[in-house]
Amino acid sequence: MFQENLTFWLYDSGSIYPIWSNLAEVPAFEKDNVMASSASPSMENHWMPFSANRDFKQDPKMFSRAEGVWYYDREGKKILDGSSGLFTTPAGHSRREIAEAVYKQLSELDFTPSFLRSHDKSFELSTKIAAFMPEGLDKIFFVNSGSEAVDTAMKMALNYHRIRGQGNRQMFVSRERAYHGVNFGGVALSGMVNNRRAFGSALPSAVHMRHTHIPENKFQVGEGEHGADLAEDLARIIANYGGENIAAVFVEPIAGSTGTLVPPKGYLKRLRELCTQHGILLVFDEVITGFGRTGRSFATHSFNVKPDLITMAKAITNGAQPMAAVAASREIHDTIVNAAPENVTEFFHGYTWSAHPAACAASLATLKIYEDERLFERAAQMSAYFLEGLFSLKDLPVVTDIRGYGMMGGVDVAPMGGPGARGYQWQKRMFESGLHIKTTGDAAVVAPPFVMETAHIDQMIDIMRTTLKAF
Ligand SMILES: Cc1ncc(COP(=O)(O)O)c(C=O)c1O
User: Fold this and answer.
1) At 251, is the secondary structure helix, strand, or coil?
2) What is the DSSP secondary structure assignment for residue 336, as one 8-state letter?
3) Residue from 152, 252, 257 whose mutation best tests the ligand 1 pocket (most atoms within 8 A of CB)
4) Which atom of ligand 1 lies nearest, measured to the CA of 256?
């Protein structure tokens, strides 16, 4: 039963504020009180992920609250969100429908063991997600992060082949400049040396194709005309290592984290052909591209290429709860599940928080918003305006390339004093000018919420331009 007078507390800056004491009071959402804290918390203990901790603690960039397309800092200054948080929040921030669904869920059923037990919403959600998938890719395995989704997909591939008597398929193929998360499997797949070099060599075996960011496609909107032949790297790897030893090829349909690298025309189709020909599974890591970012529900539809496994995360809950998933083909699922004797676990994998009730509730509320507000269609419609704005930065001498597809784009700036130094300074300047954009190295990864209006896009591009001109 829903507990009417459960009290929630938010700890902010050393003070404790009651948020609401029962659902009837929720509509007020005392956001102004939440941010009205005076004392700064100690920065001694939080070791921040993927951050320059020493610089951050000297010059913190903190958010206190968020609403719609805006973040607010501790002084109440508005900061436009040009990266949808971390590609997580296309429907805009602090959506009441999601907050209420999570509150209600936690009040009714806070936790269900994910092994041997479940709850209705996990099945309801899997049916809804399956509806976005290509035909037959409709078995949904829930996890809690993109990294977990990637490692789960790797295990599915290994397990599938082993059951079919092809246990020799232990190798993976991915790409330079790929990002597949930070668990050991995903690190092996990733094509970013800094993510790997500190952690030794005990990683799953992965060989990397070349990336598709080639000079011939500079300043190309959408898919490049050049570079489909880069897919032949897979043919070379197959010839060199033996196709029969390769379990799966992992690619992000559009490589997001390293600056929106859009595939050349025909490239993904050719990967599919080669995988099919050699019995290799094709995995699309759609952790960023899933849920409307490309203007369709998933990039598999935008590029009309069907993989065997799809990973997804981030926008699955509009960023409001940690959740991710893998969609597996019936063939993979049935092979693994039907191989086990009755009453025995079939796939020895899963997490305590797989299909957590609060995450399922958040995701169901999120998918309802996407549907009710037709946000994937809106992403498709806003794309042209967004990309036109982004590509207008081309005239700035410091800009060395721009790429874009749907509601994601990448802007490269010329390095200054070492790789990544200018990109790092740029994101700080943008923040100070009221714009949050994620940079990786010297590339800005722009991914506006789909609910942005054209005026917000204009403002975003203006700030990008002004801050770039100052270099
Ligand atoms: C394509 C891709 N895969 C995996 C991940 C890892 O996701 P997470 O940070 O949720 O573990 C990311 C994160 O950005 C990603 O972009």
Assistant:
1) strand
2) H
3) 257
4) 16
Distance 262 CA to ligand 1 centre (A): 17
CA-CA distance, 212 to 66, in Å (whole number)?
A: 36
Structure tokens at 203: 């990683």
- What is the distance in A from the centroid of ligand 1 to the CA of 25? 36
- C-alpha 179 – ligand 1 centre gap (Å): 7
What CA–CA distance (Å, rounded) separates 91 from 109?
Answer: 26
Token pair of 383 as six digits: 């794309």
Radius of gyration of the chain (CA): 22
DSSP-derived secondary structure letter, 76: -
Report the alpha-carbon distance of residue 213 to residue 155 in Å, rounded. Answer: 29
CA of 149 to the centre of ligand 1 (A): 9
CA distance 337 to 216: 46
126, two tokens: 């899997």
Q: Are strands 65-67 and 70-72 parallel, antiparallel or unpaired?
A: antiparallel
Number of alpha carbons in the 13 Å side-chain half-sphere of residue 201:
0
Rounded Cα–Cα distance for residues 314 and 290 (Å): 8
Q: Which residue has the tokens 């794309």?
A: 383
Name all domains of the chain by residue range, CATH numbers in brackets: 14-94+375-469 (3.90.1150.10), 101-372 (3.40.640.10)
Q: Which amino acid is at 51?
A: S
d(CA 192, CA 257): 10
The whole-model pTM stands at 0.92
CA 132 to chain CA mean position, Å? 17
Distances (CA, A) of 1 to 5, 104, 107, 110: 12, 9, 7, 11
Amino acid letter, 440? T
Q: How far is CA 235 from CA 11, 238, 246, 410, in A?
A: 54, 5, 12, 29
**SS3 at position 218:** coil
10-residue stretch averages of pLDDT, the chain, 471 residues long: 30 31 40 52 95 94 97 96 98 98 98 96 98 98 98 98 98 98 96 87 92 97 97 98 98 96 98 98 98 98 98 98 98 98 97 98 98 98 98 98 98 95 97 97 97 98 97 90
Assigned token pair, 196: 């790997």
